[in-house]
Each structure stands twice: as structure tokens, then as C-alpha cells.
Amino acid sequence: MSIHKEIKRITTHTLQDFKEKGIKISMLTAYDFSMAGIIDSAGIDVILVGDSASNVMAGHETTLPITLDQMIYHGASVVRGVTRALVVVDLPFGYYQGNSRVALDSAIRIMKECGAHAVKLEGGSEICESVQRILSAGIPVMGHLGLTPQSIYKFGTYTVRAKEEAEAKKLMEDAMLLQKTGCFAVVLEKIPAKLATAVSKKLLIPTIGIGAGGGTDGQVLVSHDMLGITKEFKPRFLRRYLNLADEIQNAVKQYVDDVKSKNFPNKEEQY
Fold it and tell me: Which has the closest alpha carbon to 39: 245, 214, 175, 223?
């Protein structure tokens, strides 16, 4: 913990240093100023402005509907609340696949309008041209392999990826390719722990796992899930540290009761 407190600003170089020294990387999502400030002051290393905002903030079933403008709004809100963590913003679906020029334009908008420190893209060999083009503008890129939620309709399910040998081999190849292309880190989502450990050992850059076991160089969770704001989502890899939904609901019920019973405001709570 003392190591974390000494670092005034986390950079991509800090994460590389963590990997080399065997220090695990902590990462959580945030989508607004208030939550970002709380998470940042608690000592988190990386804050991901995830396209999971589509689910937990907007109520969509998938991450696909969220737009670039909406990601920029969330990203800028988070950056204003952060003084220490590295802020990574997801490039949303439809703003980088198949067209590297569009990918570069999208990444430039995020960096200019959010003040973010890096962008994250899902996929392997099929997005390498976009990664190269973004990197050519000096924008750091985090990769994302395994379960890639933007490809949900291709896979048809959110089950564990790369259990079969062919898919595991491709994932390893894609991870090496992303490293060679210049990504500073790779998220590994919902893949067998044995494979995630093997990838992490082979790569020189850090890996950050979600549902990928303890052999990765770091861990990421959606803050709404680990804080218990969302209640329906219960995958095996999720550890709930609070049940905030219940806490908030109880507080609101108490407030309603106090207002109805004329207990609030009392004489000390008025001018």
C-alpha cells in the first residue's frame, strides 16, 4: 500500500514497472465525476470508462447502443474527478471496426474532448490496423481479448471463451500480435485461468483479468457490480464488497418515512 501512496500519477510506464516488479494492478470502472473521485482517492491504479455504461448507466441489454458522444461525456466527467489514476476510455462499437481512419478520428476525439490518458479496443488481428493508426498519433492503446462484449451477437452467449484448443491458440497469437503492434496492456476477459496465466507469462506487457483467474498481472471489475449496486448479475468471478443497493434503498425508505411523519426537517435543519 505504501508503494501506491508514493506514486503521484499512474502512467503506462508505471504499469509496466508494476509487472516487472510483480506488483498487481488494480482497475475499476467509473462513469461520473463523484464516483471517479471516490475510487481515485482510495488508491485505484486504473479507471476504465467502460462501454458497460451502456448497461449500468443507460439500462441497455448490451454495450452496442452507446455512442462516441456518450462515451466522451462519461470520460470527461471521470477525468475531472481524478488526480492519480490512469484513465482509459473504451472506443464504442462501430467507431473503429473495419476502418482505421474512423478509429483514429474516434480516438483523437476521446483524447481531446475527455482529457483521457488512453483508449481500449476489443479484438485481435482484425483490429491491428486500427491500433497501429491510433498509436501513430501518439495515443496509448489497451487491448481486450477473450469475451469481447461488443461481439455478443457473433458469439451468441457470454460464456467462457477459448476453452477449445484452436480458440486458445488464436488468443495467444492475438495477444502477442497486440503486444508487437504496440499496446501497453491487454484485458483478458472470461477465459480459463490456465490460459490467462500462460498468456501473462509470455507477454512482456501487463495483462488485466476479469474472470480469468489470479495469474494475470492485474484485475478489473465493474464498480457497480463489486459495490452491489447491480443485483441481478452474479457470475462466479464477481466478489461483492458491499450491498449498496440495499443500503441506498433503506436510506431512501427512512427519508420517505421522515418526510411523511414530519420528522424531517427538524428545528435544527432549518433557517
Answer: 223
Angle between helices 100-114 and 128-136 (to 10 degrees): 50
- Per the CB < 8 A criterion, the answer to whether 18 and 8 are in contact is no
CA distance 202 to 255: 54
Residue 208 bridge partners (DSSP):
187, 218
Q: How many CA atoms lie within 13 A of 262 on its CB side?
A: 0
Residues in the chain, how many?
A: 271
Which cell numbers in the block locate residue 122?
A: 476489443
The residue among 39, 149, 45 whose CA lies nearest residue 88 is: 45
How sure is the predictor about 1, in pLDDT bands with cuts at 50, 70 and 90? very low
Give residue 104's identity as a one-letter amino acid code: L
Catalogue the active-site residues: 189
Which residue, 241, 179, 180, 243, is CA-closest to 188? Answer: 179
pLDDT for residue 74 is more than 60 = yes
- Residue-wise pLDDT tens digits, 226-269: 999 998 888 999 999 999 999 999 999 999 999 999 999 999 99
Inter-residue contact 55 to 65 (CB < 8 Å): no
How much is the mean pLDDT over the chain? 95
Compute the Cα dihedral for 174, 31, 239, 151 and give only its sign. negative
In this structure, which amino acid lies at residue 163? K
CA distance 143 to 131: 9
